[in-house]
From TrEMBL:
Protein name: Regulatory protein
């Protein structure tokens, strides 16, 4: 089951830029149905109750063009519960991750 998340009350900041999503052999994973490369972007999600670091997977021909410290919007962010070998968790996936206009932190834009 894929659950679309309401992000209207959450601010997302890039914690680490896009990296290829790789398998245990270091080979970049691709989306099964389209053969499009997959990327992982670390985001800091902040709302009224605090912050959490999440890794969001995006399938795209090129890595999302976002830099560390940039405020972004994950497009159609989904939570995907998983369970395997007695372990479980939630994976996050988005169609795209877009920078919010004028969002670069003031310290970075002054340099």
């Amino acid at each position: 089951m894929r659950l679309v998340i309401d992000t209207s009350q959450v601010t997302f900041t890039v914690g680490r830029e896009a990296q290829p999503k790789t398998d245990q052999n270091g080979i970049q994973r691709v989306e099964r149905s389209t053969n499009v490369p997959m990327w992982t972007v670390q985001l800091v999600a902040m709302d009224g109750s605090g912050a959490e670091v999440i890794s969001v997977t995006v399938a795209a021909p090129q890595a999302p063009k976002v830099t560390t410290g940039t405020v972004v919007t994950p497009v159609e962010l989904q939570a995907i519960p998983w369970a395997q070998n007695g372990r479980n968790g939630v994976a996050f996936r988005a169609v795209d991750i877009k920078a919010v206009s004028g969002s670069k932190t003031s310290a970075n834009s002054a340099s």
